[in-house]
Design brief:
Shape: globular
Structural class: alpha/beta
Number of strands: 8
Oligomer: single chain
Helix content: 25-40%
Radius of gyration: 18 Å
Number of helices: 13
Distance between the termini: 20 Å
Length: 304
Amino acid sequence: MPQSTRSSKAAEIREVVRPVNRLAMNVASCGEGPAMVLLHGFPDHWRVWRPLMERLADDFTLHADQRGYNLTSRPADVSAYGTEHLVADIAALIASISDEPVCLVAHDWGATLAFWLAMQQPDRLKCVTILNGAHPYLLQDAIWDDPRQRAASQYFETLRSEAFENLVKPDAGESIAAEWFGPELASGRMSRQDYDGYLKAWRSPGAWEAMLNWYRAAPFIIPPIDAPAPENRWTHGRDYLIKVPVQVIWGAKDTVFSSVLVDDLNRYAPCLDVHCLPDAGHVPQRDAPDTCADLIRSFAERFL
């Protein structure tokens, strides 16, 4: 039976600073039960997971947040946001909270890191649930070969630019928040508390530089719309298989990721379940939290 938000004490979210991979990681935690780690994307932090944390807290102990976001340490160098460091953070966080493999739930940028961890250190994971995110090699090849994904990914270059950073700095992203989150706030999909929490996190010194450094340090190559696709690719000759069970929850109205990223995923993830939500967009945990929580719970329980 579907389970909606509960008001139990387990759902009370606590923020605790943990030493993780030479960072002071501000980890938001709640719940009771087996460990589950939640990885967010840009420009989020743990608050993007609140709808699911409230719904899953009676079944799992949930932990969320990442390098450079909210109150977690923000190294100054762009190189500190290379994927090897971001993946090492997740592995270290898992080791700090559990002696056993954990269930991983990830969205957007966090999903790409989850795939990398599942390729490189599958022994740390029981299973992975992806919410509108992309396998890194599949994403890069789609950027080169799929016109829809190449067009959709041009925002990478915008976010890498000094011009965008200068655009958001004067008001710490308040105008961006109104544009990006206004519909969610108006519809009730985002609470005023969480909206204000985003603004508070973004006003912290260095917040936008750190978030944008994820894009600047990323290996993804974004060619112009009309540029030919290359023959020599950094995605070739690598072990791209995901060695743990994967569930994908896909909001069909996503404008960030093309459906090719889920249509072709079975070549990369042999043990794969896919659930398409026709009325959800890029952030299905906000658009359909009850459905997402039920799917995550049922999938994780198969491997516990």
